[in-house]
Structures are given as C-alpha cells and as structure tokens.
Amino acid sequence: MASAQLTDDILAFINRFLDIELESQTARYARADNFREVRRPGAKMWFKPSISMNSVVYYSELSEREKEQQAALMRRRLFKATAHDHPKRGAVYTFQVSSDSKIRGADRYVARFDAADTEKGFRFISRHVTCPDCHASGRDGSCSGCGGTGWKFESGDDLGPLPPAVDVRRFDAPEDDRYRVAHERDS
Ligand SMILES: [Zn+2]
C-alpha cells in the first residue's frame, strides 16, 4: 500500500470544506434577515418564518449578541495538515485549524478534523479539540491531560493516538505564542 501523502486533491478537500463551512455559517445568520416578518399566532413578538424540513420554522430577530457573532464569522485558518499510515484505517489525514470566529480563537489551534476513505468515499471521520493543559503540544508525549497527543477526542471514530506522521505541511502560523510548539512539531 502506498504511503499516505498530502496531495493536491487532499488539500483541495479541506479547502473546499472550509469555504462551504463559512458559506453555510453565513447563510445561517443571513436567513433570519431574509424573510418577511409575520406575527406568529399567539406570540408576543415578531418572528421571521422560513421553510425547513417541510415545516415552518420561526426565527426571531438577530439579538445583539448574534449580530456580534455574525460579524465575527471567518473562514477557519488551516495551520497544518498531517498524513498517517494507520494499521487499520489506512491513510488518515489531520487538518489542524483555528476557530471559525474572530471572537473565539483566530490566532490559535482550536480543532483538528481527521479524514479517511470510508464506504461513502473520502470523508471526515472524527473531530478533536486542543488540549487546554498543553496547548496542543503534548509536552513531548508527557501531558496527562491528553495522553501526550495534544488533542482531546470530541466526536466520530476514536482511533486513539495516530502513528507518526509520514507527511506534514504547514500553512499559516498561529500568532498566539502558546501554540508555537504545537505548530512546530511534526504531528
Ligand atoms: Zn495535553
């Protein structure tokens, strides 16, 4: 079996996803503004309806907080990608990214999306968040908060610690110095 490699196709996959995620997040806020106001029966305030899943869903006006969140939306930054030859899953790729909000971490590692071939094609298989104890560095494998991986499993297939990376690509660098070690390590 050929070794896992961060090809143009693999990088196009994550970049396409980051584009689509921003579009969908943007639409989520825009939707509430795009519908004519109607009074919901019995409601004391005005709602904006839209059709979703064949039923009417009512959206309230964006609150001030939601307006702030809307203004803070950003395309996640791709900091690093890694490729691994997993004994059971074959080629597994990680994409290590910032938040999708300028309020919540544009300058640091926030999440890791893993992708691999599945029965339905090449897909995301799991999601991790950075370990707050070591800021995703793993402390040379000694961090007790994350078992030394730098990451905490959040959802999807839990493959446990990945084998050493066979290919690593760095893109943006995080401005937050606490994540410098995470950025420099080859995992
Ligand atoms: Zn840790």
Helix content: 10-25%
Strand arrangement, major sheet: 8-7-6-5-4-9
Order of helices and strands: HEEEHEEEEEEH
Uncertain ranges = 35-39, 44-57
Radius of gyration: 20 Å
In terms of topology, how is this protein built?
Blueprint: H1 8-33, E1 38-39, E2 46-52, E3 55-60, H2 64-72, E4 78-86, E5 90-97, E6 111-118, E7 121-130, E8 151-156, E9 167-170, H3 180-184
Antiparallel strand pairs: 1-2, 2-3, 4-5, 4-9, 5-6, 6-7, 7-8
Bound molecules: zinc ion.
What does this structure look like?
This protein has 187 residues and is of the alpha+beta class. It has a domain at 74-184. Helix content is 21%, strand content 32%. It is built from 3 helices and 9 strands. The protein has helices at 8-33, 64-72, 180-184, and strands at residues 38-39, 46-52, 55-60, 78-86, 90-97, 111-118, 121-130, 151-156, 167-170. A 6-stranded antiparallel beta sheet has the order 8-7-6-5-4-9, with helices on one face. Strands 1-2-3 form a 3-stranded antiparallel beta sheet, covered by helices on one side. 25% of the residues are buried. Mean pLDDT is 87; it is low at 35-39 and 44-57. The structure holds zinc ion. Residues 131, 133-134, 138, 143, 145-146, 150 line the site of zinc ion (ZN).
